Amino acid sequence: MSDSERTFLDVAITEVLPELQAVNKSILEEHLQSIGVETSDDLLFVTEADLMTVLRPVQARKLLSAWKQKYQTPENSSLSSVEASSTQSLSLLSVSPQSLSSTSSSSPGCDTHWDDNFEIPWSKLPAEVVHFLERGKRPCPKLRRQMVRIVVTEMMEKCPHVGRKHSVDVAKKMVAKYPNSLQDVIEGDIVGAGYLSLVKQLQNRIENVRRTSTPKIRKRKHQTDSDHTDEIPLEERAAMQDTYGCIKWNVEFLPLEETPESQQQKMEKLKVMFQQADANPDEVKSLMKSTYYTQRQHVNQGKSIKCLREEWPFWFDELGMSVHFKELTGIDLKETFTRNLDLKGKRLLDYMTTVAVSKSKAFLQTYARLQRMRGPQGGCSDDVKEMVLLLLSYFEEKEESMLFCVEDTCLADEVQLEQVPLTPTIIVCGQSCYSSRRYMLSIDRNLVSTNISSFISALCLMFGSYYNFNIHYPSELASTLEFLQRCFFSINPEKGTKVENKNSKRRLSVNPRVLTLIQDLADHEWRQA
Fold first, then answer.
1. What is the CA radius of gyration of the chain?
2. Residue 117 has what DSSP assignment?
3. Which pTM value belongs to this model?
4. Which domain of life is it from (predicted)?
5. 20, 92, 396, 402: least CB-packed within 10 angstroms?
6. What are the tens digits of pLDDT across the range 351-366?
7. Which distant-in-sequence residues (6+ apart) come within 8 Å of 416 by Cβ?
8. Tens digit of pLDDT for each residue in 223-250?
9. Strand 425-429 to 439-443 pairing
């Protein structure tokens, strides 16, 4: 997209919604381009329904009203009327006969706010489903699918053109009435927003219904890559992935009590303290927190990992990484992981070793190999190693993309870094995770931490690096990292993705494979020995 086009979209949005945050404006710009807006004339063909996934209703109406007044001319006025008529005619093609008969009194462009007053058809659900719901028990997958089919039928009778926003609103209503039965809960901990797996089921059912009633020529066009192409360049899309899951990604101003000189002095003091064996952890924490502004400036300006390691050595150990991660995301890095490990770790391992092994021969072979490597003895640390390795196998992602093994006696300067992935990688000093008692961390093929004694610490440092240093999840680890992010680090954005995009296809905000595993875990019953 050219500079002039960027200026045009900036002006078109900012003039009407000056209070819109920069991140939200970027999301809106990306969305407008993805639906085909290229010139000011194109804005006249944007509808309120097009904007409902990224803006609140009043904001969307403000934009449309202002654009109509500013860009409407006699020529494009007549053109937009023809286009609107054509769009309505085309939309009729994708509606089933049943839906047409039930909505014959309303126009195809139905009220986009119908879901505000939508009543969930609880009375139409099978008695067995109601029995579970009213007793606060989770219906089995089969009953849950029956419930979803009935609800979707009612939704599409109200409006054939159901969008994701409507599915979200309906799922929220369902979960609000029966939270104990319908929320995504693993060992008492609500995963994500609590309703995302239900949204996924509703959306899948809607797509299945539409697929059977869509004429072939329309269906073929719907499936072309052009409908899923992100128009903006990769370097602009990167900002969306950098800010994903963050609450304070860019700090515009220094703290009131700070100056550039004081920040520099504190940075130098931290360098000196790093050389001291008896540095006070509380003082280090205080200095790292007070210099967060400068740390963000450095990483957002694109300074290399090598440079950051030299200027902020504490940033690459557990204490410094945790301080910055907490400021950036609002999450306690290691504390959150260990808490969620206590809540969900055993259930996940039980599912993997009892259910998942029966679904895939390759996964069963991986599990058998890991058992031989682990041996009869093992504790919590080995459980975590097995959990991560099984997750990688479950999602069919390669261990070496996350874990790079070297000899147990290998020194830092002996690691062949040219063979290590560019993304944050745990260097395992031993033939396997089970035999290793020492780990290193590589980022951008720089050894930034060389004597990590705990696998849990290494895992937290690796994960925290993705956020602290604006690094995207590699596509070959997309599912494993997002599952860890949502279930064990409690970062659950509803929009966006942190996965790098190597092609032009648009990625879903929530990985479907991750949602499926979350739902399966919530459905999985187990007993602790």
1. 26
2. G
3. 0.62
4. Eukaryota
5. 92
6. 999 998 888 888 998 8
7. none
8. 333 333 344 443 344 467 788 899 999 8
9. antiparallel
